[in-house]
Amino acid sequence: MGLPRSTFLRFAALVFLLQLVGAALLLATVHQLTQDQIGDEAEAHAERLRDQFLHSYRQGGFAALGAAVAARAQPGRAPGAALLLVDRGGRAVAGNIAEWPPSLPPSSSAATLDLFRIGHEQSEQIYLVATPLAGGGRLLTGHVVESELRFTVILEEAMVSAFAVAVALAAFAAWSSTRLIHGRLAATVGTARAVAAGHLDRRVPVDGSDDAFDALGIAINAMLDRIAALMAELKIATDGLAHDLRSPLTRLRSTLERALDASEGEEARGAVARAIDEGDRLLTMLDTALRISRAEAGLGRESFVDVDLSAMVEDMVEVYGPLAEDNGFEIVADAPPGITGHVHRELLGQALANLIDNAMKYGAGRIIVAARRTPAGDAVISVGDDGPGIPESQRPEALRRFGRLDAARSKAGAGLGLALAAAVARLHDGALELHDNGPGLRVELHLAH
């Protein structure tokens, strides 16, 4: 699965973004609240000064206002205050600001400006409120907010650092949450893979938390218990079926053998002999069909052993050598030493024997039985011949149980050889592949390492 389509990646991205947005909103809210608080306090100071001076103005006129401003502007009287009173001509009458700020409109307004106060060597950020007077003069009251604004700069720098930390924490939260979910699901996936590999006793661990993952594990375990019970019933049924059918067929063969001994005419003896052959064929078909069913059900993995596959190939070629020679075939082995596998020896031997039998029935010329190791570490056993082969379009039919192609119907067989080999390959977590041998057919039995 590609990363853009990964559910884990999308979930991690969602958690990361939510954490990031939450942190950004929190920091922005704190910043805005701080700015608003500073502005409100500065405005309150400036307007309080203005109201006090306007009270003096209403009581004693412009002269009283000038005296009040001059008195308040004295050093030490109002450390954070900024004051200026000008007459109708714009000349300074009193205050601690030398002249009316050019950038401040003469009408009543408020602004934060960078100004020098008399007696101070450096400019300061001052919140100012301008008030026009009835006689044409103007009053300027303000409050120094330099330290407050410096604090906001420090606060903004701290917020940048806090946001960087928030990004790291959001990434960690996203990673932690996905790892937690992945860890809970990994046990379920591991159990499913183990069961698929034939370990029917494996179960999903549950921790009693009664959450969705626990419910999933309990449901899967119940399903696996049911499957295990059905597999046990299948084993009992197939074993019973094999026993129940093999016994009467064996008795039938014994009866036919006695009938063959008692027969006098050649025609009668031939008919009885053919009946015995059909009985043997039926027994073989029954045994093969049961083997296929058991292999496809995953039964038999408990019998896996380490086997020298190279030696097995050599042994099979030696066993089939005389028979192949009698039928006009040349059979050779191509198996470098040291190829081993953990396999079901009996079933694999039966599958390989079926492939060699098929090559001698339907193939021609030279039969090569080979073993090799793939780059991925899997073992491959193959049987190739120089016969007519199987067209690619008909290969699925050839692999089907009891599937027989038109060219094979004239020869003895039940159409189970390739089906058994395919079932044995699946039992070993592999697959059976049919390839063009150029000419002929090459059947490859892939066995997972």
Automatic annotation (TrEMBL):
PROSITE patterns: HAMP, HIS_KIN. It catalyses: ATP + protein L-histidine = ADP + protein N-phospho-L-histidine. One of its GO terms (cellular component) is plasma membrane. It comes from the Bacteria. One of its GO terms (molecular function) is phosphorelay sensor kinase activity. Keywords: Kinase, Membrane, Phosphoprotein, Transferase, Transmembrane, Transmembrane helix, Two-component regulatory system. It is found in: Membrane. This is histidine kinase. The keyword Flavoprotein does not apply. It is an enzyme of class 2 (transferase). It holds the Pfam family HAMP. Residues 179-232 form the HAMP domain. Signal peptide: none annotated. InterPro entries: HAMP_dom (IPR003660), HATPase_C_sf (IPR036890), HATPase_dom (IPR003594), His_kinase_dom (IPR005467), HisK_dim/P_dom (IPR003661), HisK_dim/P_sf (IPR036097), Sig_transdc_His_kin-like_C (IPR004358), TCS_sensor_his_kinase (IPR050428). The lineage of its organism: Bacteria, Pseudomonadati, Pseudomonadota, Alphaproteobacteria, Sphingomonadales. Residues 240-449 form the Histidine kinase domain. Its EC number is 2.7.13.3. Its main location: membrane.
